[in-house]
Design brief:
Helix 4 (50-71) packs across helix 5 (77-99) and helix 4 (50-71) packs across helix 6. By secondary structure, this protein is mainly alpha-helical. The protein contains six helices and two strands; from the N terminus they run H-H-E-E-H-H-H-H. It has a two-stranded antiparallel ribbon. Helices cover 66% and strands 3% of the residues. Strand 1 (26-27) and strand 2 form a beta hairpin.
Amino acid sequence: LLALQIHLAGGLVEDQNPWIAQNIGQVEGKILGEIPPMIPSIGRLLRAAPMLQWAILALPFLGLLVIGARHWRSGSPSLDYTAMTCALMHVTLTITLLGDGLADTAKQGHLIVNAALAYLIVGTVVLIADLQRNNLGPKMRL
C-alpha cells in the first residue's frame, strides 16, 4: 500500500488530475451546470495550473519539515496542526485506496485537497496574526 502511495505521489501531475473531482464548481439542480465564469472557483484554477496542485498538496509536508525543525523538542500548536493535517491527508489516501481502490478516487480524494487548502488558509491567518502581534505586518482586524 505504501509503495502504491509513493508511486501515485511520484507520478506525473497529469496522472493526479483524476484526484481533483471534475464536478467541483458545478451547480446543483442543473445537469452538469457550471458556475458562471464571473464567480471565482478554486476548481478551475487547480485544473488550469497543475503545478499549483502539487504546491498545495506539498505545503503541509514542507511545513512539517520547517516547523518540526524549529519546534521538535518544545512543541507548538503550529506543529500539532501541521502534523494532524499531514496525518489526515495520508490516512484519507489510505482509506480511499483500501475502500474503492483506484476506481473512483475523486469521490474521496478531494478531501485531501481540501485539507491542504484549509492548511494554507489557516497558516496564512496565523502568519498575519503573528506579524501583527510583533508589529511587523499590515494593521488589520481579524
